Amino acid sequence: MSVLTVHVEGLGVWSPTLAGVDALRACRAGAPPAAPVDRPPALRLSAGERRRAPASVLLAVEVAEQAVAMSGRAADTLACVFASAYGDLAITDYLCATLARAPGELSPTRFHHSVHNAPAGYWTIATGCHAPSSAICAGPATVGAGLLEAAILACAGQQPVLLVCSDIAGCGPLGDIVACRHDFGGALVLSPVPGPGSRARLTLALADTPSTPPSPPIDCTGGMFDNPSAALHPLLESVLDSTGDVVLAAARGRVLHARVEPSA
Amino acid sequence: MVLPMSPLAVSASTATSALGRGLDAHRLALEQGRSGLRPNDVSRTALPCWIGRVNGVEDETLPAPLADWDCRNNRLAWLGLRQDDFIERVRGARRRYGADRIALLLGTSTASIGATEEGYRRLDPAGRLPGDLRRRAIHSPHSLADFVATALALEGPCLTLSTACSSSAKVFASAERMIRLGLVDAAVIGGVDTLCDSVLFGFNALELVSPEPCRPFDDARHGISIGEAAGFALLERADAAPRAPRLLGWGESSDAHHMSTPHPDGLGAELAIREALARAGIEPAQVDYINPHGTASRKNDTMEAALVTRLFPSTTRASSTKGFTGHTLGAAGIVEAVIALLAIDDGLVPGNLGVRTPAPACGASFAWRNEHRRVAVAMSNSFGFGGNNACLVFGQGQGCA
User: Fold this and answer.
1) Pair type for strands B289-291 and B377-384
2) A63 has a pLDDT exceeding 60
3) What are the tens digits of pLDDT across the range B323-340?
4) Can you say whether the dihedral through the CA atoms of A69, A72, A76, A79 is positive or negative?
5) Chain A residue with minimal CA distance to B129?
6) Residue A264's pLDDT is what?
7) Is B100 on the interface with A (CB under 8 A)?
8) d(CA B273, CA B324)
């Protein structure tokens, strides 16, 4: 089985009680959780875009911006993979409710915000990025499949890649079914080669699903593991420590082993 | 700097669209210049437009073990998988390589949202989805790939790509990277999208839906006709199937311009085309046939006609086939890749259906009628919302010159 090696140059994280990587570090050091915040700042967007953008876009852009800023890379040079298990659940709820009631009243803006690649579109527009951008999902294995896709893109193209994993809370009858109750987003900038900005080395390999599941990480997310994107959380923690073994679901019956070590 | 890639074999392919089930139905309709479009008879509320509907999707039944995934989109997937011996070809690959050495990468824009829409029309008294639709498997954008992975018993990497109308073109690029890095030996790729109220009323709200059958590259075009389709292909290393047609190159880019309209000068589209040519190691003049994105929207076709005319000589022939199938959205990439492969196989450049007066930006490359000629290299463009572009280049297999 082939092994992929990538180097983490930047991290981003956002949930209502976790404003960024510093807050994640503080939480792990035992600090009390911050008061919940409604919306991520998403300062990379212009004021107009920020007003128009749906919640899924604000969340993805926020964590992308954090990770890219930490990496020191120019955002417009990075190929990007935006992973989200559900896309924008609030917009899907709006679309289905409006179509059931009065299809002719559907908002054109909300419709084009409903595409799974809306965060990728907003991000590439905001950063002037012409590099390839993708939007993917893989159900409960979205984070593992997204990390694999991003690492493959980095290794095959010998280029740095931005990976964003984010899902927002559901609402309405659809929210009732999918039971994702919190916003969570995480991001990584991955490079195929080590550099001065490398924070950790990831060695990735696909394997059969182990019989014993990995132990859960320290929970700094306020119990939001109903959010498929929160599967990235243990990897973010291991990268902060520059050590650890993380097992992520990657497909049915398959996991992605991520060994985390110091980069140098 | 893009390096040429080792070509891959497209060792099996199939498509099911408004033109019919499987490759021969497509061959025949293209040869006869027969459109599959019909007046809209699918939306719950009347919407006067034309659609590319697949006959008989409603009558499909999924095998009992797959019943949890039952919905229109997965029924169309199941119908599409059963054409052209595709399932048998995948079974052969599974025997050769092992189920965990075959990736499954599928594109879709709306997956099975039609089932979620239906649930909202039939909420129970408590305001919840009705009992028969309380199945998590279908209320997820991964519904399609999850279903197909189970139906084909594949255990390799499994991914849904959802970048609107470039989705099932980008799966070729992802698959090529996985095979090149040795993560898998083969990949089942493709895409499925079905007609549903979201896309019909959504594109209508954007004033992009034509009241008449779409007329790509016509001066008086009025917008798109939405279609549905399923398409699949099997990619392997070239030495595994020397006579099969080849994936020669792919290119991907972002416009960084606007969420729902293309860059007016085709900046991102040109980047994707140039990258695909570089990866294939060929010059524009070596492309015999281009199947453009050609949606019949005002802006796409103006941009793309100018781009084709600027980049390619008149010996490169170009024609949109969306007048045949409608715009099949997330399935457009695979359907038009299959048509490009048919062009190579049959030596047929299908005429660009629906044009009375060509748009002024169209140069001498555009084929308004069928042309029988050798097609050694064919290109297919797919551009999606969010400025998401993909370009694929295909060529003949060994011994086919």
Assistant:
1) parallel
2) yes
3) 999 999 999 999 999 999
4) negative
5) A173
6) 72
7) yes
8) 24
